[in-house]
Fold these 2 entries.
Entry 1:
Amino acid sequence: MLKKYRLLLACLIMTLSVTLFSCSGTSDSNSNPDPMIPETLQVTVIGTLPHDTSAYTQGLEIHDGILWESTGLYGYSTLRKLNPSNGSILETYPLPDTLFGEGITIVNDKIYQLTWQSGLVLEWDLQNPVLQVSDTIETNGWGICSVSSSTVVTSNGTATLSFRDITTFDTLQTISVNIDGGPVNQLNELEYAGGYIYANKYYSNYIYRIDPATGNVTALIDASSLLGSNWINPGVLNGIAWDPEREAFLLTGKNWPTIFIVTL
Ligand SMILES: [Ca+2]
């Protein structure tokens, strides 16, 4: 008889626990939805281009029907001119062995290329690319994009983006990129399209869509589906270029075999 009561008691406790747990779960999922948490967008691949697996991609940009790429590492850094129709390399412009290439952007027929730790901003004439030093910056160079004919935005591996005057590279203002108030660190390659700054976070397969006025992340773009499971040592996603003709993004990464043409 005692056994029977014990069994009954155990059943009652279990039923009560399940009910409480269930109520608690329901309550959590229905209360306090946070409107500040941005939506997550998936990428849809609409085409691919081959990509040089020796390219340690640091920046990607399309300008007047040409795809430009910056590659990094000491002794291997380059500026490259690519055919956006088939991915072929049209020209390669090597950097001195002492410089580590980073992001690029094109403004007023000049290609601006950041370098990692030298503080030097490199400038190339678009029609006849010859290396010159344009300016210096006071921080590491990671990513760069242009938001107007007079202003570029740079990243340096933190959550801060700096808006700079194109003629001096002096900082005009900074924004702190955040999701619901929390900083998004290690911002790297940048792209400006449709009024938003797009940035990828180092070692992440997410691209962040950022409101340039506030630094708020308005959407997360999940690019993890692009990584091939059979790739040998795939590097991180680090190339974002908006293609106005295709109305699509070109995405690639360090030493990836493929440039993906994607819509969101
Ligand atoms: Ca870019």
Entry 2:
Amino acid sequence: MGRLWLHRYVRFVAVAAAILITAGGAVTSTGSGLSVPDWPNTYGYSMITFPPSMMVGGIFYEHGHRLIATTVGLLTIGLAVWLARAEPREWVRRLGWLALGAVVLQGLLGGITVLYFLPAPVSIGHAGLAHLFFTLIVCLGVLTSPGWRRSYGRSEPPEDRTLLRLALLAPAAVYAQILLGAVMRHTGAGLAIPDFPLAFGHLVPPSWSAAIGIHFAHRVGAAVVTVIVFAAASRALAHHWARTELTRPAMLLVGLLLLQIGLGAWTVLSGKHVTVNTAHVTAGSLVLATAAVLALRAHRSRFPDAAEASGRAGTGAEVLP
Ligand code: HEM
Ligand code: HEM
């Protein structure tokens, strides 16, 4: 029972982290990153004593983001401590501490980027770590789930090397694409190519600058990611249709990817509409996390706790505490 509550708590932290990513995305999309000039204080007030009546304009986004970040930081401390006390697998306990380290570093990067007036490398690092942090929490959700612990009821799943490779390649490619997106966002290259799907009316931009190069690389990246994701998902669906633990994330991944491409195109065509642009950041995180879930589940039998779980596979262990 205790372990089921732990799993539910991880899911709750994951939802809070997704809200935090959206709030952070809104800070950048609205250009509010410098609306609070000091850190860790807010206009000289401590974070919790800052009057809500002063949360106007960009301060609403920036201070709101700090408040949500602090909440998620506290939830992550709770997660690491709960795992340390209740989780028998040492490597999972370590992942809990890693998540805590990531959120602390993330908070520091957030503060540093404010104090140094949003230097692109720091803001890009802050964006890149945010997506990794969310994905790590989602992975902890998978690792603490009852399904994972009973190996999804499969003692000897067929070894499909093609699927294993594609399932690893997908999150790696998505993350590279996210980093390209962050570089574009924090170097002001988001509208360097103003039309879509063509670039200045051509397949390839007729003239080049650093901004156009970064922007075009993100579009080529989207095409590469699409090929890899479709290959991984169709492998799972065509060769493992009975393994719902794979087919479900595979279908979700394809759906989220199509949504993400639509949001990316809409971001450009709307001239970076705040809501659309922010949704593109959040959906990027969801694509990465879903690809990571597929990778974890595809590699289930290679994890250190596989032998222990396979002894229980198919024994009605669904009711594991
Ligand atoms: C601790 C967990 C935190 C997470 C997961 C997080 C996440 C994010 C995300 C996803 C963005 C959007 C990046 C982008 O769209 O490119 C962002 C932006 C931002 N965050 Fe955080 N953040 C955290 C903590 C903080 C803290 C404590 C501060 C303190 C000041 C902070 C300050 C900022 C600022 C100023 C921006 C805008 C940066 C820019 O536009 O260049 N963040 N955050
Ligand atoms: C595989 C599909 C895609 C993924 C995973 C993805 C992911 C992302 C992410 C996560 C960001 C923000 C990074 C951050 O947090 O700072 C971003 C930025 C951006 N993406 Fe995408 N993207 C994809 C496809 C596209 C497509 C097809 C377009 C259309 C041109 C596009 C246009 C943009 C633009 C313009 C920005 C920067 C917005 C700004 O300057 O504020 N994306 N992308």
